[in-house]
Amino acid sequence: MTDSTVAATPAAPVAAGAILEAHDLAKRYIVGENVVDALRGVSLSVMPGEFVAFMGPSGSGKSTLLQLLGGLDRPTSGRVVLEGRDISALTDNEATRLRRERTGFVFQFFNLIPVLDVRENVALPFTIAGQDPTRGETRERVQAAIDAVELTGRERNRPDQLSAGEQQRVAIARALVTRPALLFADEPTGNLDFATGTEILDVLWRSCNERGQTIVLVTHDAKAAAYADRVFVFLDGHVGDEIVLGRRAEHTAAPLISRLAQLGL
After folding, report:
1. Number of neighbouring beta carbons within 10 Å of residue 154
2. Residue 19 falls inside a structural domain
3. Is residue 256 situated within a structural domain?
4. Does residue 1 form part of some domain?
5. Residue-wise pLDDT tens digits, 204-237
């Protein structure tokens, strides 16, 4: 598929061999006397090694879906299946363990520990798990994650000695160091300028394209979503469209923007 071609198809409920599946997910909140349906029967699947983006206006349900898929919240109804396991049916402790071992998260705010240096922040998942990140394979994995985000030589810098883009790179390395099956990124460029945001998206895309990392990105920005293989467009709690971009070395947003314009977005 060329960069100028976009295929739009109805969202497929599930696909054989999917690493992540959403089955008829609904999420309802009670706010005072009001009922808010944040998600309305969402079904979709993500394949291993795929880069998928969720985009849509504020309040469309994309971030709510990411929280459900990542096990940070539970659906009102429906199922989430990760690597064949129905995480919606797990206990809180089981869900926490699965989330820690099989998923990584990157958010708009970097959430680094100010008193820890780069190496210590990246190693934090191992430290929390009671492992010594300064020895053996664990040390090698920490350094490999730092190298992957191009922060070699900055290992002893604290967050206040880094630029915003470098801090987000540390957050990405921390999310990747456990080699998660899935990396969830919620508006990871929302706190960055355009040039720095592009650098972060390049880091994410390389981790997918060169290392086979599966990525689910939530964004309101078409330029960020254009890095994805597929884009799910959310409207009022449901998938309004699925746009297939394909794997591309160039990430021009023009085809995606054109399709979104056809949808009135």
Report:
1. 17
2. yes
3. yes
4. no
5. 999 999 999 999 999 999 999 999 999 999 998 9
